[in-house]
Amino acid sequence: MSLKKAAALVFMNTLVLASIFGIFLVKSSKSPQKEKSKEGLARPIPTFAAQSVKSHSTFTFPGKVKAQKLAHLSFPVGGKIVILNGKVGSCFKKGDLIARLEQREFIQRLEMAKAELALSIYELNTSAQLRFNLEKARVEASHAKREYERYGRLKKQRAAPQTKYELAEATHELACCQTKIEKKSFNDSKKRLESKSSIAALKVKVLEKALSDTSLYAPFDGVVVKRFHERQEQLKARQQLLSFQSVSKLQVVFQLPETLAAKGIDSVLTKCAVKFPANQQSNQWYTAHPYESERLANGETNTFEVILTLPTPQELTVYPGMTATVKIQVEEHPSSRTMARIPLEALARTPNGKTYVWLIPPKGGHPEKRLVTPLSFKSGFIELAKGLTEGELVATAALYSLHESNFVRPSVDACEGLEQ
Asked: What's residue 83's pLDDT?
């Protein structure tokens, strides 16, 4: 009987141990699933990545419009105007004909110069008499040299009298002198003809240039703004005919105060814009770029003249002399720490008036409540003096229902509900 009780007791103990071990295995296998389920049910929260922004100040100044290119056109030569297309307000492309002088006299002079050039070239190439005289002198000098050498040999052999030797010597010297004279005469004549030919060629070039100068072409794309003479009038050389200005770009001149110039003229002109109050679109600003700036202040106003340039707005009618308004943005402290910018809906407020945001971990986790210091409000965004850095994710919804114990993650825009 005692053996049966002992066996039963051992069986019961084994059953209890097996049950405990089975429960432990079941709990161990379910714990990762619960954690996974908990992670999968993280609450999606709409977020916004904080943007960096630097503090700056905006200044406006009155300005005046001027043409970037203004040319006072004239003819380099004088003459009577026979063609004049340059009516005031007429637009021209670069290379278009604006005006022309009468060309008949210039063409006649050019034809005469070309004839003189042709004649001088012909004389240079056909100076036959000079060439004949030089060749004749060379032949005679060569013959006299041979005779002189022959009589020299005969004299040594005592086969020729002294008188014939001396005559051959004198004839040889005379022939050499004559050759030198003829050579010098030929070279001098050749130089004279070459010089004459060069002068004639230069004269042709000058008259060709004068003929081309009787036509006046547009130096760039522009418009005629003023005309000083009419067709059939007689003009002197360099007498101004009309004023021509560019239409592709404008310039705006304004005065920069010395207080801003002290920060560095180039550094304060990095962000410039211009608007034109005389036009209906006077509230529209157009980006401009620095073109030129003085480095010597005006003695009376203590300002520096600055010229901005910008493309001519196609939708506006702007003429030189019109008024303009110049706006420049200057960073107050270029070396200071940048501020952060977030949407207005990301900012919450405590009952005692403190402002805060909820930081959402990029890969999910518990949100962090952080106090921030608002600085300004611009176009639906809040600029923060401190509290955030660029790139940190802040919640933009459910600000007053979040708690640091919640498990959240950034939402995905393309999904809905818990699938976000």
From this structure: 94
